[in-house]
Amino acid sequence: MIAAQDLHTEFQFPQEAESQLSSDTDLEDPDGKNAKTGKGVAAKKGKKALGDKAKGGGAGRVTGPGWVNGHHQENGMENMTLFEVVKMGKSATQSVVDDWIEAYKHDRDTTLLDLINFFIQCSGCKGAVSGEMFRHMQNSEIIRKMTEEFDEDSGDYPLTLSGPQWKKFRINFCDFIAVLVRQCQYSIIYDEYMMDTIISLLTGLSDSQVRAFRHTSTLAAMKLMTALVNVALNLSINMDNTQRQYEAERNKVIAKRANDRLELLLQKRKELQENQDEIENMMNAIFKGVFVHRYRDAIAEIRAICIEEIGVWMKLYSDAFLNDSYLKYVGWTMHDKQGEVRLKCLTALQGLFYNRELSTRLELFTSRFKDRIVSMTLDKEYDVAVQAIKLLTLVLQSSDEVLTAEDCESVYHLVYSAHRPIAIAAGEFLFKKLFSHRGPEEEGLPRRGRQSLNGSLIKTTVFFFLESELHEHGAYLVDSLWECASELLKDWETMISLLLDEPMPGEEALNDRQETALVEIMLCAIRQACECHPPVGRGTGKRVLTAKEKKTQLDDRTRVTEMFAVALPLLLAKYCVDIDKVTNLLQIPKFFDLDIYTTGRLEKHLDALLRQIWEVVDKHTDTEVLEACSTTYHYLCNEEFTIFNRVDIARSQLLDELVDKFNRLLEDFLQEGEEPDEDDAYQVLSTLKKITTFHNAHDLTKWDLFTSNYRLLNTGLQNGDMPEQIVVHAMQCTHYIILWHLAKVSDGTSVKGDMVTLRKQMRAFCLMCQRYINTINNAVKEQAFTILCDLLLIFSHQIMSSGREQLESLVYSPDSSLQAELLNFILDHVFIDQDDDNSTDGQQDDEASKIEALHKRRNLLAAYCKLIIYNVVEINTGADIFKQYMRLFNDMLSELGFNFDRSSSAFCGIKELARRFSLTFGLDQLKTREAIAMLHKDGIEFAFKEPSPQGEGSPPLNLAFLDILSEFSSKLIRQDKRTVHMYLERFMTFQMALQREDCWLPLISYRNSLQAGADDDTMSVISGISSRGSTVRSKKSKPATASKRKLPEGEHCWCTLVDHLFYLPQQPICSIRENSSSSSDEPHAASNVRSSALNCFWPNFEPIKSLTKSIFLTCYFFVMRHSRRGSGLMEDDEEPIVEDVMMSSEDRLEDINEGMDFDTMDIDLPASKNRRERTELKPDYFDPSSIMDDSVGVFHFL
Q: Containing H/E element for 80?
């Protein structure tokens, strides 16, 4: 038996228990298994303490079937240990346990010794407990002996090994413990020997400093506790049934009352009560000895095991465990700094809130920890955030009053999250909150139509979409709601009715803004149904659809076509002048099944659609609307469908009208001697804009638009008074003409002479663009430059690749004068101070305009850099580009100095940029070792390169860069940290090491980052210090050096390489210069040798080399420069960073319960439901003052 102090062992009948036994016969034990070995008079005199070994019951060595000399026998062929049997998993766990029990009945010492060695071997220990050790040594001595024999050269043990075999071993290990207790629940677990020994052993092992012992024994103890909870639950049910039978028999009349049966029932109730007392003692021993220490273990996986199992106990036996005494552990651990543990807390709570009966008993817990659960929806671990949202959904289902409006709003905006699982979970929460509640007045509403229930729900969706102030992405909202509200979002009939039908009397009609939102949601729902993949930004790509999903997709596409083929012309007719609505509506036809127009005899509706598109083109000049019309025509003009001729005729008629109108207007516009008025210019511009938009997707070469556009451009160049938008669109249209002509020539569908014509047109247009580069108007110059760069790239020598040698005559290479003009344009229009950029006509005060101008300059630079990459222009022109970066870098350096605020948002922004940049190096440190070492080397040299202008007592000019460089220290392996630190000390003076002023903080923090973790050994078997010191290593244990991880093959050569990078001068084979005078003691010797060698090959290499070493430094000083002016652009471009509370530098919980010293409540199984007395109410265990010392303030915010 287990001795425990101050245990409330008075048996109490459970108040509530779900009976799993349906008849009186369920209480009977025909095999006599409920007879307890070792009980009786001797048992009543006193219980043996935990750990004492009973010496009787096994003098002879008689083995049971399947068990030979303490080893399991498989088919009579081989003997295996219990560990090997469970590891192999060939035998059923039931049969293995039955064989062990039979052997235990004959020789319990030998069989129990085999079970002890089973737990030792499952921990990965190669030692074994002998019979002599078992008989004469205490558990602490046995554990110390096993620790000495543990293999410290490897940190792996069965529970941490990968592979399917070891994953199955963990399952078999847990099943073995559960089956063992279940099979022994009627007799052996009450013999005061087996369970006492096992619990004592596991408690001692769980307190070991050896991680393998602690991890394995904690898992075994928790699974053992779960099995005992099942036994306790069965005992509670049996006692309820026995009490019911006793009451029924006692209420009979005296003549029919069976006194013998009453005595038998009383005796059975007494035995069950004694059994329950013993189970209480066992569970108390495990809970106090293992759980209360290991749920705050240094290893996250051990903490996760404890939290997972306590959740099982509370769900399985809620009468005993679902109270504040145990819920507090889950609440506290929700602040754990490891996501794995926080995730187990949430999953454990989900199992409780899922049961409506249990959720009503969690009101106090919810009120205390609700804020923490809500904050976990923004957890940095996505899995934790998903489960937190799901838990709040269950809380919402249990009670509508628990979550406030602010709590719900914090979840609502997550439907726009880029992480799809989070968005889907938030969508389910939103659906449960807004759409699941139906009032009695809504029960009789029709299923479809404006007055249906879906009509009001769709309106609610629109209202929510418009009230979302954080995002305006309808596709994200639809995708978030798709899994839980797809039927609502597919009710396009109701949506059409809301848009077309007149409101009923007393019904409030949708306003213009709401109708626009409804059209967008309707389009997004159609796209989601027909494409069956999430929007851009969610998901890694298209997945393979199942047969069922393909059928659903086909059915939805058919419904969309049949419904909108009729409704779309009506919608376009109603909203013809609304740009936003028309743009979205014209995207619907690309999801049609065009065959249905013919099979469904819907040709008249197709004609109506084409007429409406014609009207839209005639009325609109907006680019988005015209592009939508062009795209719709392109999709409908598919030669594979029978409607092609009908659509092609309509398209040709539309283009004929546009081209004729353009030529007529152009003649009037270009008449000599007349000043073109604004109305004529507007008519020419609108028509040219429509033609250009259609030419992007349709081949208009048969209309011969090149002559008209070239004439227009030439006239504008000669007169200089052409409106800029007309010139811009004329250039774009001519560009499309040349590209379509090139496509026909490349496909071989052109006639003779087309290639000569294309060559002449292309060269003439390039010369025209070259002349426009030197004009005054910025928009025209930028358009000409961009198109010219594209044409030079397209018609370069690359055009002959892939077997297209016949296009050699089209190759056009720029001459030196053109190259010079392109370079001068970049230098004059890209590398300028942003305050001097007047391209936005005096609107530079607007941040949006600044960002747009910046993007425009980036695009211009990218267009020119492509010419350098593909050798269209001379490669040495790249040096002039790099010179501009170096000039900007030097200007920033001279402006910045070293006096700046390291706490400013700009400096924090560049540190965050460095942190993100460091993450791109990945987890394979050996693969990126040389790159990281060179980064630190160049960074140190840069930081100490410029001395302070104030003298030796002040820090170097660039010392602050070490603060940013420290973000990359974690990417150094341990031995490289020492090498980098030694290299840093070569630049430091003795006075620098003693400085503690604020201006020297970058040096201090960088040195600390190189020294942190230098002595850590993550592969060591010893992972942490236990909370108690009862088990320590013997002095005979292996020396500490034996546990150090050995370098893998090739790592010594890496060390040599890194040392050469930092110290040794590397003389290139092709070096012409002699560097014999250079000394390896000089920090810059190696870099000087490399620089001199490279200068021999390329005189202009110096700017490129400097850029390569300082491209990251340029970004750093760019931000620093803007920080002196005020808030820069980075603040607008940065995405918000949500940092979890566990990782906060101020509120970090290093150990969730460090310093706790409180009395753990004893496990007191609940009273029976027939007991009339009620126990006193327990104190509020969520109150920190009731469970903590006054000195412990880590949970004062709960």
A: strand 78-80
HSE-up of residue 484 (Cα within 13 Å, Cβ side): 20
User: What percentage of residues in the chain have a pLDDT greater than 90?
Assistant: 41
pLDDT at residue 677, as a whole number: 78
Q: Strand 78-80 and strand 71-74: pairing?
A: antiparallel
Angstrom distance (rounded) from CA 1143 to CA 380: 9
Q: What is the DSSP secondary structure assignment for residue 289, as one 8-state letter?
A: I
The angle at the Cα of 152, spanning 149 to 154, to the nearest 5 degrees, equals: 130
CA distance 259 to 266: 11
> Closest Cα partner for 1009 from 1039, 1045, 964, 1061?
964
Q: How many residues does the chain have?
A: 1198
What is the C-alpha separation between 141 and 113, in angstroms, rounded?
15
Q: How far apart are the first and last CA of the chain?
A: 39
Rounded CA-CA distance 444/441 in Å is 7
CA distance 448 to 454: 7
DSSP per-residue letters across 821-832: HHHHHHHHHTSS
Pairing of strands 78-80, 67-68: unpaired
Instruction: For the chain, list residues with pLDDT below 70.
Output: 1-79, 90-91, 151-154, 437-450, 470-471, 540-541, 672-676, 834-845, 889-903, 1012-1198
The pair of structure tokens assigned to 1038 is 């292996």
CB atoms within 10 A of CB 22: 8
Q: What is the rounded CA–CA span in Å between residue 598 and residue 603?
A: 7
Count other C-beta atoms under 10 Å from residue 291's C-beta: 24
Q: Provide the pLDDT for residue 445.
A: 59
Phi and psi at residue 938, to the nearest 5°? -65, -35
Helix/strand/coil for 554: helix
φ, ψ for residue 1091, nearest 5 deg: -65, -45
Inter-residue contact 813 to 758 (CB < 8 Å): no
Backbone angles phi, psi at 196, to 5 degrees: -60, -45
Q: Are 882 and 876 in contact, with CB atoms under 8 Å apart?
A: no
What is the gyration radius of the CA atoms in the chain, in angstroms? 40
Distance of CA 276 to the CA centre of its chain: 47
- The tokens describing 1062, both together, are 């930092």
3-state secondary structure of 103: helix
Q: Are the beta carbons of 138 and 203 closer than 8 angstroms? A: no
| E strand spans, 4-77 | 67-68, 71-74
Question: Rounded to a whole number, what is the largest CA-CA distance in the chain?
Answer: 134
Q: Where are the alpha helices (DSSP H) in 468-602?
A: 474-489, 492-500, 512-531, 547-574, 579-585, 595-599
Asked if 152 contacts 1021 with a C-beta cutoff of 8 angstroms, the reply is: yes
Nearest one of 1131, 1126, 1135, 1191 to 1158, comparing CA atoms:
1191
Helix segments in 748-810, DSSP class H: 754-772, 778-794
For residue 256, give both structure tokens. Answer: 């029919």
φ, ψ dihedrals at 210, nearest 5°: -80, 120
Phi–psi pair at 1040, nearest 5 degrees: -65, -30
Q: Which residues pair with 80 in a beta bridge?
A: 72
CB 159 within 8 A of CB 304: no
Q: Helix 324-333 and helix 363-375: axis angle, to 10°?
A: 0
pLDDT value of residue 282: 93
Contact 637, 599 (CB under 8 A): no
Nearest to 827 by CA among 884, 891, 889: 884
C-beta separation of 299 from 306 below 8 A: no
Collect contacts of 287-292 with beta carbons under 8 A, ≥24 apart: 287/225, 287/1160, 287/1163, 288/4, 288/1160, 289/199, 289/203, 289/206, 289/221, 290/202, 290/203, 290/206, 290/217, 290/218, 290/221, 290/222, 290/225, 291/221, 291/222, 291/225, 291/329, 292/1160
